[in-house]
Design brief:
This protein is an alpha+beta fold and about 425 residues long. About 20% of the residues lie in helices and about 30% in strands. The protein has two domains: about 100 residues, Lipocalin (Beta Barrel); about 230 residues, Rossmann fold (3-Layer(aba) Sandwich), CATH 3.40.50.1820. The protein has an eight-stranded mixed sheet, with helices on both faces. Strands 1, 2, 3, 4 and 5 form a five-stranded antiparallel sheet that branches.
Length: about 425
């Protein structure tokens, strides 16, 4: 789909929260396997492939591919197959599906941003899906002034694989940043469709003298271990990343920063007090209110059933009862917060809860609210509704103000 107008593209992206939901097998048809279908939007067809897996304990997990948009392995927020009905939700794009399960088909409706589209899945791949040539991606950074090196380091119960970008022009040890992902099955590039937030950001920072470490989450990409959304385990991985950087001769061990995006923007302040000698933390679109409230807001926006809401909360059990405003008050290193005005996943209207708490405790806080940016810090065109997510499927660099803000702030410390 070539244009950005609302209703001509159903933008699919990585979900805000990657979860699984226990469900009992249907007495007649098990949904496990591959299913193919296509959305028809104003005469244009968008092929989709649904992959459903059932673990030995009956737990369902599913991913969705949108080959035409270059998006593969999109995890579901929740999925249920009960009473002959399949339902799933993708919270990040405000989308859901409900369909009746047959022997070889699932007939139902896909809903996104208040619009509904008939969608029938057929069992099996349905033959090869014709995939258009991918749109060009704006990576790597033109004229890179850094080297990229594949690295790995050990954490608790896992070996994490990543990429270290090291500036070419070095005069002694350099400052360094560890990039901490949002939720879901994120690899080191934090790729959403054709866009890669962390790849873009690391290129920009390393082009300006900063060493950057980004890595595949445990159990994702080339990293070993079991995937998890438990911040305690994710925190172990961040601490291992910092220890790895402190062993590198290119890095100044006293000038290491943590940068967390989305869920990572809560993980980072939770664990920052446990890492001695950090130079500061950077939070991009961090949760500003308890996770329960965020899920309630998303559930209302997506019209999720109570059972789906409870399943999401169950998957986020490690975060329940945590107030980000109380967490940030415990951080005693400099803090930079970046927030987009068009973010509909972590609402800019909630940001004051974080800033008020940090200021009340006299924390060293800098905040920049970027006009027109969404949750990925892509700039939403003025003609595009902020909740359509169409920009997620269009190749673009993230807003250059992000790297500029980070670099300016780091150099001023």
């Amino acid at each position: 789909m070539a244009n950005r107008s609302r209703g001509t593209r159903v933008a699919l992206c990585c979900a805000l929260i990657s979860l699984t939901l226990a469900a009992s097998p249907s007495p007649s048809t098990d949904v496990a396997g591959a299913w193919s279908g296509a959305l028809s939007v104003q005469g244009q067809s968008l092929p989709l492939v649904l992959h459903v897996n059932r673990a030995s304990d009956g737990t369902l997990a599913a991913t969705l591919d949108s080959p035409a948009q270059g998006a593969f392995g999109i995890p579901m927020t929740s999925i249920s197959a009960a009473g002959g009905v399949l339902t799933f939700a993708i919270a990040r794009i405000g989308a859901s599906y409900r369909g009746v399960i047959g022997a070889n088909s699932i007939v139902g409706t896909f809903t996104q941003s208040g619009q509904s589209f008939p969608l029938t899945f057929s069992r099996g791949g349905g033959g090869p899906v014709t995939t258009p040539a991918p749109q060009p991606t704006p990576y790597p950074t033109p004229s890179p002034r850094f080297a990229s090196t594949a690295v790995s380091f050990a954490s608790t119960g896992a070996v994490l694989a990543g990429t270290l970008t090291i500036p070419d022009d070095r005069h002694g040890p350099l400052p360094a940043v560890v990039l901490v992902h949002g939720s879901g099955a994120d690899n080191r590039d934090e790729r959403v469709g054709p866009n890669a937030v962390f790849l873009d950001l690391s290129n920009a920072l390393s082009n300006d003298g900063v060493v950057v470490l980004r890595y595949d989450k445990r159990g994702i990409g080339e990293s070993t271990g079991t995937p998890t959304e438990d911040w305690h385990v994710l925190g172990d991985d961040v601490r291992a990343a910092v220890a790895f950087l402190r062993r590198r001769p290119e890095v100044d061990p006293n000038r290491i920063f943590l940068l967390g995006h989305s869920e990572g923007g809560l993980v980072v302040p939770l664990i920052a007090p446990t890492i001695s000698g950090l130079a500061g933390i950077i939070l991009m679109a961090p949760p500003a209110v308890p996770m329960e409230r965020i899920i309630d807001e998303q559930s209302e926006r997506m019209s999720l059933a109570p059972a789906q809401r409870e399943a999401i909360l169950h998957g986020l059990a490690a975060y329940l009862g945590i107030d980000p405003a109380q967490v940030i008050a415990n951080v005693d290193v400099p803090i930079l917060i970046l927030q987009g005005t068009h973010d509909v996943q972590v609402l800019p209207s909630d940001l004051h809860f974080l800033t008020d708490a940090a200021n009340a405790d006299h924390r060293r806080l800098t905040v920049d609210v970027l006009e027109g940016d969404d949750h990925l810090f892509l700039t939403v065109p003025p003609s595009e509704p902020s909740d359509s997510f169409a920009e997620y499927a269009v190749p673009a660099l993230i807003d250059p103000r992000v790297a500029a803000d980070v670099l300016r702030w780091m150099k001023a410390l």
